[in-house]
Each structure stands twice: as structure tokens, then as C-alpha cells.
Amino acid sequence: MILILKGGVTDEQVDHVIERVEAMGLKAHLSRGTFRTIIGIIGDESKIVVESVRSIPGVAQVVPVLPPYKLASREAHPESSVIDVSGVKIGGGNIGMIAGPCSVEEEDRMHRIAEQVAKAGANIFRGGAYKPRTSPYAFQGLGEAGLKRLRDVGDAHGMPVVTEVTDPRLVELVSEYADMLQVGARNMQNFALLNEVGASQRPVLLKRGMSATVTDLLMCAEYILSKGNPNVVLCERGVKGFDPATRNLFDVAAVPLVQQLSHLPIIVDPSHATGKPELIPACAMAGLAAGADGVHIEVHDCPEVAKSDGPQALLPEQYAELASQLKSLAALLGKTLSPLPEKTA
Amino acid sequence: MILILKGGVTDEQVDHVIERVEAMGLKAHLSRGTFRTIIGIIGDESKIVVESVRSIPGVAQVVPVLPPYKLASREAHPESSVIDVSGVKIGGGNIGMIAGPCSVEEEDRMHRIAEQVAKAGANIFRGGAYKPRTSPYAFQGLGEAGLKRLRDVGDAHGMPVVTEVTDPRLVELVSEYADMLQVGARNMQNFALLNEVGASQRPVLLKRGMSATVTDLLMCAEYILSKGNPNVVLCERGVKGFDPATRNLFDVAAVPLVQQLSHLPIIVDPSHATGKPELIPACAMAGLAAGADGVHIEVHDCPEVAKSDGPQALLPEQYAELASQLKSLAALLGKTLSPLPEKTA
Amino acid sequence: MILILKGGVTDEQVDHVIERVEAMGLKAHLSRGTFRTIIGIIGDESKIVVESVRSIPGVAQVVPVLPPYKLASREAHPESSVIDVSGVKIGGGNIGMIAGPCSVEEEDRMHRIAEQVAKAGANIFRGGAYKPRTSPYAFQGLGEAGLKRLRDVGDAHGMPVVTEVTDPRLVELVSEYADMLQVGARNMQNFALLNEVGASQRPVLLKRGMSATVTDLLMCAEYILSKGNPNVVLCERGVKGFDPATRNLFDVAAVPLVQQLSHLPIIVDPSHATGKPELIPACAMAGLAAGADGVHIEVHDCPEVAKSDGPQALLPEQYAELASQLKSLAALLGKTLSPLPEKTA
Amino acid sequence: MILILKGGVTDEQVDHVIERVEAMGLKAHLSRGTFRTIIGIIGDESKIVVESVRSIPGVAQVVPVLPPYKLASREAHPESSVIDVSGVKIGGGNIGMIAGPCSVEEEDRMHRIAEQVAKAGANIFRGGAYKPRTSPYAFQGLGEAGLKRLRDVGDAHGMPVVTEVTDPRLVELVSEYADMLQVGARNMQNFALLNEVGASQRPVLLKRGMSATVTDLLMCAEYILSKGNPNVVLCERGVKGFDPATRNLFDVAAVPLVQQLSHLPIIVDPSHATGKPELIPACAMAGLAAGADGVHIEVHDCPEVAKSDGPQALLPEQYAELASQLKSLAALLGKTLSPLPEKTA
């Protein structure tokens, strides 16, 4: 960590800063420049409360030298992690293909969609039983009945399932039914929830918040990892942007950036990122070409009757066409769409 | 609600749209323009699932005519609400002055700060017992011991207290100690938490999320109101911006905008909005001049040892000077800083 | 265009709105809903000054039905345009590969870079002679000497050249030397400059401004088209974002969005979009996979001595590796990197 | 300037960095920490090309210690500048009140508006003769005839006038008619134009670009100052935001921030910042309360026939009411609205 002192700093202030640094068990290395004095802090930076240091009189700026996350960093874990979701691998050249409707819907529709996406190449089935809706008057999901249906449909088609958990009190229940727990964008910094999914052993799909930097995202992964759950898959799903032409702004550069900073896999969700079916295939291809470890797509066979988020769903036949293109692209990049888990008799 | 149809829409598609609208118990009013056909929907718009309508083939755009919130809207409740926090009024010309340290700290420090801010004009004391920290390794608050201390200090100085609740499982406990429950920016769309504070009867201080539009904020207030708790005070605390010179971007225009759209009081938090003590007084004045119903300021008597957010705290003497200016400005605007509640013997 | 009237609008106000609409030579189609009255305007919308209409008393909201650009729209010109830059085609399956240093530099370095990028597959050579620098003290480019050198180097290696023009007074001069005129992001809405490049017959590379919506970008293209120059290539080069980890936020979804709204080709510039060489290849691949008609990359053989923007340049060998991957990807997508123009003896 | 080197940097790389720094005539001060090596650069930082330094192999990050602007900085000029616009002072406690229609309009309307705003307290009259319009089909201003009319109306009512100049070729002509030259937000980084207004001796009203940081704004002021024109007034007029409820996001914190970093006056323009007349008074008050040196407001007596930007104009009577409140607020803050210049017989 480097402290840049203010222009007219006094000797007393400099001494006080050094005292404070040494009181934390660290060494201060003073360097007087022509216009500014800087102090390099030598020792274990994690002992420092950055905010307190910034408040020491005479300090103008604090420049961290190390990232604030450790377990999530590639420095700590140079090899890329491969996460196993009940037999389906994500990361290290294995492409996760998560697909399904936004909400868990009627049973026969669920079976139809699952069958079609599995045939097209999807390897994890999704559907929301607890929906975080911006309106209190909107459909809030089927709850436990939805979990059960999702599980049954997944089993029938040999697919692991992922579903969102929105409440720390529900983590245990959801874990009984789902192979993977999704933490949604609006809950990325719901630390009570992160602590609970961290205590679970289910793999977690952690979606980037709408105003989260990549560092913020990795800090939330750190929460989960630090609680003992190493199975985190990150998801870029669009950040808040200024152009109303798309629902969010798909930050595709976050994919290679995360992969340089962290060993955790990262997938893309062009459904939420764009909110427009006509842009989803192009953005899915872009994500994979940028190096993503998977693609999350909402699929519905009749978007006009979907209980939520119909307008951003692909039709099953559109998904099949896209999946076929993604397969070719993965091959070009030396990667493979992960196969469905082998059936254990 | 108005549906704008696509350029080359067929008669069959137009008929199908009308059928779907009528199936929802509404009337469709067709209007063929030179270049586009539009359909006005007549009836109770709240019956419509906007997203489904947008997915009907041939529909290019859906334009809502009414705001999606009802209980929070000024149409529903033309008079400005005045919220009573254990005897301190916020709204309708009564200015709430919330002040105190970021976290609950040592007992004597708490008493010292409370005494100084109360003397300066603060009428609600704040302090965090459960801190939502971006790092799992940072100080997470004192928990229930912090709640108890906050309560005791508030009582000793005759001030109601507000503190943040971050977990739906803690709403009951926090309500036993606090006069007002704060929902933080990162939890604005934590709907499980909103439902719990909505079921409580404690006034709620709802902070705007970093990427929340004013409509998003009012929808979250609607969650709380719809659960039966009418005592919501909104708080503008800065949104995500692109200039690293300030921590967030203080959206002062949100104050008059909220007041036009809603009857709920709105206060400003220039501490979090700017993250820089040297900008806080100017932004506090700006907020009040824009019509805010209160000002939330972090105050600490030794920021360099603060357990959290030291760099954005004012010193007690800086707070006193600011409070005096705010008092003069309030008088100019025909408003008053709410007095401390009278002691009941 | 649709006018949504305010809640308590009077009959007199409604009549006045209709009068005003009819005074513009248009028809008003009234529709009274349960909660709001709307007026559809029938006729040639381009006659309307949107802003004036929004100021008519009683009008709450104006909803345009048609895009504000015409010549740039795909409705007006369903087939994708192919722009010819002195023999190199961009659009319609032909990939433009623009490469070269940020600024025109020393002669031998220019020759070396041009030779290497041409060999790798680049088909247009770039270099700035007039540099828009954020500091008045930074290197401002070589001016006309730079133009001449760029032309000579391009000719020696059989490549058309593109360079930025920043001043309407220089359009004629730059057109004498360059095959394509670049309008930079900071000048996207420099309408005096747009008018001049519109009056030229040189193809124009129009870069998206940092806070420009896709509609804003297409309106600027409309300026150029409306002056008689149909040869416009658009460029997505990153918009302003909140995460300091990248220089800008690469909006890859703008590529398919522009292609749906407009017939003009659009290329991507991952160098400026990310500002980080280690992210450029992934974002270049993402752009092409999303459907871009070309890729603009800065290349320098010794970034640490570059006169500008060294940190975002690829080395020639890095460019060669990327170009080879782009070529494979183009083939997968059924497209081809445009060949260099044939030499005319 | 501080260079933070990469994690696994070699001794050869460290030596090479030091050589490069010394080759620029500066001293390098090496400091090896536990996890990273840092190099402090001692000497005149302005000799350094930041970008080149960042490209030296082994350098991870470059941290500037001084702001990149000099003439505009408060360090260079501790006393606040007071700019004289033909007798009307802006800065140092003198409040500039700029008011008038968006575009120069019909002669009698111009006289009526000028008379009313002057009576209310406005001290500089505004009106656009050259309009930067987003559509090539929109009204582009009256040109020189508009300049002449603005001048005549200003003279008739004893007010200096300000008008926008959009083209470097027009600076001389506009300077003949106007007392102050406005550089609009879209042209903030039009360096050709900045150079020309820098060579003029007319005071310049420099508006902040929609995606410009405060540093970017001050760098553009530096362009003008460095060309010899010290008379620059800055203007905060809203930056690009994500909430469509307002036209832009009024960044009121930029006012005190600029005043800490720079000696130049800064005014606010709530008309463009909000785009909504009902929010303008609150934001004007907020700006003044935050310390702004002036307020720029668009005023029109019949917005529905305005040639541009009608919806964001106040009516003259609304302006008079606001001006009266601003006058009281200025008095509370110990400031005064500058009087009109005395007539010279």
C-alpha cells in the first residue's frame, strides 16, 4: 500500500502517519519527491483498515498494491478451477450450457422445454421458484412446489438443475432440490445470503450486480469461498447503462478480465444483458468468443404467456440453432460443450 | 397502456393482439397511422403483465401510461406524508437530522458524539451494529451488543435511534432496540428483507440502490407499504457514476422528482454520496435547498480510528457548523429542524 | 407520434393540443382511456418539432413511433451497405482489418509496422497526423508531414490509409492524402465537422461518442448521409463506464443492434474500448462473433516509446496471432477478410 | 509519479525501468515491499509521457501524484478568479445570472423576454444563433442575423450577451457580436475550437461534456488558458445518467469539487441538467447552495412555439419567482447577484 501525502504536509504530520503505520505492525518507507512525499507500507497489507489510514491527517490518497480478495485471486490459485455441477463440468475448456424458462411453469411445458434444450445441447436446466420481482404485485414464483417440479423435470431428462435463492432462510430448502444455487444480481451484495450459500456445499452461480465492478464481484465470491464453499461460477449479465435501447449493457470485456484476475469460471447471460431476443444469439457468440466458460439462456416455447420475462426468452428452435453455432465456435476455440452426466443405474 | 405495433404487421397479428388484450378483460382501441398501427388499452392497467404483452408477435413497443406503484404515488395520496420516529417528525416542513458514527463504537465515544450532535441540532442518532462490508475480512459490527449500546446512548441523550438491518431473520431483534430500521443501498431490492420490514411497524429508512432509478426506489417503497407499513422515509445517497473523484454521484434532482411522484418524505445522505468530508457540507446544503426533508450525516470524533468509513465522517465541530447553516437555510425555506422528542417523565 | 396527456387535463387543453397538431398539417386521433387520454398523430411525423409538442399545456409525454433518422435506417435501405475504401470492401461479409500505430511515427518504424500488419492480414493502414489529446501539453501529431508519410507508407505496402480529421478546416487537406476520414469519438457530435466530411466523397469512419446512444450515433451518420456522402462505416469503441478496470466499456451488443436498425457497416475498436492489450484479442474475437464488419486495432513495435497511447497497442507478433484467429472465425461465420486491393500497374 | 511494478518483475526489468526514467532527466527512487516493488519518480513530472511509462515492461500501474492541469489549478492560483463579462462579475461572491431563450427567436419576443429577465435579476442575456442539433433536419439557428439581433436586444436592455460558437471558423465573427463565447457540452473536447477561443480575448463559458470527469473539464479549461485567455467560466450542466426520468444527471457535487481543485468560477445550468421545468427551480437553488458562482436558465414566454428546447424553459414569471428566491439564498450565503453594468453615456 502506498500513501501519498498532501501538498503542504508538516513534519509532525509525517511523523504521525509513520507512527500509525508502525502501530499496525508494519514498516513505513518514506520517499520525499519534488512536489509530494509518499510513504510505502511494507508488510502484510491485509492488516490495514484502508479507510482508517485514509483519515490520518495529511494523507491525500491511498493506493492499494494488492487486490482485496485472496482466495478468489489467480495469484493464490494459478490454475483455472473446474466446477462440477452434479456431473457437468464448467471451466477449463468445459462449456456449461444453462437453459430453461425464467420461472418454473406448468409441468408439461417444463418437460417440453427441457426435452428440447437437452436435445440441443443444454446441460443444466434452469427455472425460478422464488422470483425477485420489482413489483410486489407481480408473480412471485411457485415456491417449494416449483422446486419440486424443477427437480422432477431435471431428473426426467437427465439434467442437473439450477434455481435462484433469494432469502438466507431458504438456502437449506433450496439445496435439497437444486444442484446449483443461483445468487441473483440484486442480491450479489446480500452478505447474509452469501454467508449461507458459503456454508452450503452446493455449487453457486453468482451473478454480477448491475453496478458492481469486477473487483466488487470477486469480493462477493471471496465471501462464499471464505466460508468454505470453493464451488463458485461467476456470471456476467449486463451492467447498468445509459442507452435505453437495451435492458442492460453487456460487459463482455469482464470475461477475459475476470479470467486474468481469478481462477473461477465465468459464464455469460445474454438474456438478461440485452433483454431483447433478437440480440441474444450475437451476444452469446460474443461471450463464448471472448472466452466464457458457459452460456446462460432463457428459453420459453410461448413467451407471450410466460409468467415472467417472456420478452427476453428464445424459442426452443432458436435456442437449438444458437446452440449448434456455439458448438462449432467452441470446437474452433478448442473447447467442448460439457455432455450430460452419465446415468447411474 | 399503449402498444405500438411493428412496421409490417399483418391483419392476423393485429387481431391476435386484440384477442389477447380482451382475454385479460380489457378493451383495445385500434388506431392506424400512416406508418404504424397503435393499440390503446382501456381498463385497469394493473391486470396486465407488461412482459407478456411485449412478447405478443407483432408488438414493437409497450408504453405504460400509469406508474407501476400505487400506494407510494402522489396521485393516490396527494398530501405529503409526515413520518413520526418516536416523536421526531420527518416531512411536511419538518427536517430530520440524522447523525452519528458509521458503526457503533466504544461506549464513551458514543456518548461523546451523541452529546455533541444533539447539541448541534441532530434529532435522530445513528450507528451500525450489523455492517454490510464489501470484504469478508472487514469489521462486521458488534451485533446485538451494538444494538443495546446504541439504544442506551440514544436514551441517555433523548434521541430516537436508527440502525441498519441486513438480514430478514434480524428484523424482529433490531426492532426491539431501534426506533427506525434502515434498509441499505445494497439491500434496496432484497425483497425478502423488504417484506419483513413491511410487516414490522417501525418506520423504515429506505436507501436508494446505486443503480436504482427513481421508479425502482418507489417500487421498493411500494413493497413495504403493500405489506402494511406506511412509515417509509426515502434516502438519496448517491448513485454509481463514472468519475472516480467522488465515491458516488449525488443525484440531487431525485429529491424534487420523488416529491412530485410520491407523498413519501425523502432525505439526503451526502456522506455516502460523496465519500469526501470536504464536499459533505456543500452537498448537505444543496440537498436541503432542493427540498429534502432531512439530512443524514456520519460524524466521528477521530476518523482515523473509526471502525468503518472514517474518511467520509465529519468531526463534531464541523457538524455543528454545518447544522447551524442548515438551520438558517431551513428557516429561509419556511421549514424547521424537528426538535428532540419531549421527555416523558 | 403519440401524445399522452396529463391526468387532469381539461377539454380546452385537449382541443388546444388538437388545434396545434392540425396546424402542422397533421391529423389527431383522440382516444380516451380509463385513466388517461392519448392522441395519435397521423401523417408525416418529420414535420413535427418534438420539443415544441412536448411543451403544449396538458401534454405529459411524447412517444415517437419512428426513428429520427431516415437515410441511415434499414427501413429505408433494407440491404446491407458495402463500403469501398479504395478497393477494400467493408460490410456484407467483407471484413475490414484496420491496423497501425496510434500516431504517425518515424518513417522506418511506419514501414516496419505496415509490412508486418499487411502480412498478417490487415487491409487498411492507420496512423494519426492530427491527434485530439486531452492535454494541451501532449504531442499533437505531425500535421501535414504526418499525412504525407502515412500516404507514402500505405502506397509502399499497397494499403489504403485512414487518419483522423479533427477540424473542419482540414477536411480538404486530409482528403488529399487519406482514403478514409476518421471522425473520432470526441468529435462525433461536432456538427461543423460532420457537415464537411459529408460534403467530401471520401468514406468516413465515424466513431461512437463515449456517452452516445446508438440512436445518437445513427443521427450523426444521418448528418453525413444527408450532405450527400453515403460512405459511412460506424465504429463501436467503448462507452463511458463505472469500472476503472477498463478504459471504457466495450458495448458489443451495439453491433447487432446497429445492424438491425441500419444498413451501414459497423466495426469494433477493442484497443480504445479496453485500453489494455491483454483484453484486446478476446474483445476483437467477441466483436467479430457478434457480427462486426471489421476490427480496428492499434499496433506498435515498441509501445514504451510510442508518441501516444502505447499501453493499448498490440505488438506486431501479437497482432499476427490475433489476425490468424480472426480469419478462422470469419470463415466459420461465412465471411472473409477483405484482400488488399489489386495493384493497378 | 509512482510506478507500481508487476508481481514477478525481474531485476533486469527493474533496471530497465530506472534507465528509462533517468533518460527523461528524472530520478528514480526504488522501494522494495513485501509483495511489490515501487518506484517513485522525483523531478518535474510534466516531462513524462504517462502512456509511454505505462508500456515499459514490468510496470503494472502508474499513479500520478500531481493533477495534469497547471494553470487551472488552485495550487497555481490560490485566490478565486473573478471573471468580468463586459462589466458583470462572476466569481468571488458575485453571482452571474444568465437567462434567455435557447435559440435567438423573433425580435419582439427577444425584447419581451430580455426585459422580463433583466427586471427579475438576470445580468447576462443568452440565445443561440448557431445551434448544435442532434438532427440534421432540425432548426440550425439564424446565424449572423441571430448574432446581430442578440447584440441589439442585449444593448437595448443594458445586458452583456453570451452565445454558443460551434465552429473554429466562426470564433472571430461571433466575438464581434458577443461579450462571452459559449463552448457547448458536445464540443468540450473539440480541441480545434478550444484553441481558437483560447486565442480570443472574450470570456468563455465552458460547459462540461456529458461523459467528462471533473479532471477532463479542467484539462479543457487548461487548453484555453494555455493559449493566453484567462477568462474561463465553467458550467455543470448534467452528465449522462441511467435514469430516463431526467434528461441528464445533475452532478451538484462537481461545484465544490471544482472549487477545491481550481480557482475558476463554476456556474450551474439546471435547464439542460434536468430537461424538466418542474425540477429546474429546486436544482437552481441546490446549485447556489452548493456554492455555484452563477445560474444559467433558459426562459421562453411560449415554450410550445420555441424553435428549440421548449420543454426545458421556464416562463418569465417562473423565472422571476426563482430569481427572487436565489437572491435571498445568495444573501444568506454572503453573496450578491451581480448588478447590470452601469451605462456609459
UniProtKB/TrEMBL annotation, chains A, B, C, D:
Residues 1-66 form the DAHP synthase ferredoxin-like domain. One of its GO terms (biological process) is aromatic amino acid family biosynthetic process. The keyword Oxidoreductase does not apply. Gene3D superfamilies: Aldolase class I, Phospho-2-dehydro-3-deoxyheptonate aldolase, domain 1. SUPFAM superfamilies: Aldolase. Its EC number is 2.5.1.54. This is Phospho-2-dehydro-3-deoxyheptonate aldolase. It comes from Stieleria neptunia. The gene is aroF.
